[in-house]
Structures are given as C-alpha cells and as structure tokens.
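Supplementary notes (optional reading)

For those who missed the lab, this is the record we used. Protein: tRNA threonylcarbamoyladenosine biosynthesis protein TsaE. Length: 182 residues.
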Amino acid sequence: MEAPHNSLAAEVDESAAPGTVTVSLAVESPEQMQALGRRIAGVLRPGDLVMLTGELGAGKTTLTRGLGEGLGVRGAVTSPTFVIARVHPSLTGGPALVHVDAYRLGGGLDEMEDLDLDVSLPESVVVVEWGDGKVEELSEDRLQVVIHRAVGDTDDERRSVTLVGIGARWAGLRGARGTLEG
C-alpha cells in the first residue's frame, strides 16, 4: 500500500483470527517511525507487553525511541543489544519503559526469567526486540509489532508495519486506528 509523503496510511484486517486485531501501516521515514512510536505510547498502560520483530535495521529501536518519548521516560532510548535490558523510569508519573533486546538470548522464557520481566511487567511497559518464541508466556495479552523493510543493497526508508493486538486488552486497537494514523 503506497502512502502519501510524510503521512501514515493504515488498513485494518477485518479477517484477523478471533482474539486478535491487526492494523497495517505504511511508514516512509525514520522520523515517521519515531512518530508512530509516540502515537502507540498514547494507547499503552502499565502491564503492557510489546514485542518487536523485524530485520536488522528495520526500525525497532527507532520505534522504541518514540515510545519512550511518548511515555515521557528518562534517558536516551538506545539499543540494549550488549546490556540485554534497560529500564527508563518515567519523568511524568507514568509507567517505566523496560527495553529488552533478546537477540543474544537463545533460550525461551527460562533464560528471560533472569531478567525478572515478570516482576517488572505489572507496573511497566515492557518492549522486547527479537522476543518471538521467548516471551509470549509473560502475558496472554500483548501487542506484536512486525516491521518489514526492503532488504539488500538499498537506501529505501519505507517500512510496512503491522500491529497485531492479541487478547482482550487489545480489542480496542481497531478503534485506536485514528490515533495511530496521526
């Protein structure tokens, strides 16, 4: 789906499996990806688990940077690749942002237990890059964000972003479509 320059275009998948809501967006630039993160932050609340999936360089950390801005957290949001997890406390009285990069973690939830994410989750927003197959058991309700980009030798900044809300918590995602489009 082609989007006009400097805007987001969204589609809602009405055929999504029961218990899931899917919204697809076209993002044209890193600035738009960060802006999308700010808008997603507007629908997040303590206890939310957000899983980010995408190739290297897809924009997972850029989106998380926008989430941090939208949540009003302290500290620069950068990739936690080498430290595995970073906690960004709120400056506004809202939830902290726990940013995890599970790329280097080979095991499932057992290996993730060392990070005590289950302890952090109730009062924080937990964002996990590369979490597929590793953190789903933390919550029945989660937001999966899948970012696709052109691969190979290209400087194309366009991305296709699919938000999949799983569980009762995300039933209203379809109604938040206007918020996400900006």
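If you only remember one thing from this example: DSSP finds five helices and eight strands in the chain.
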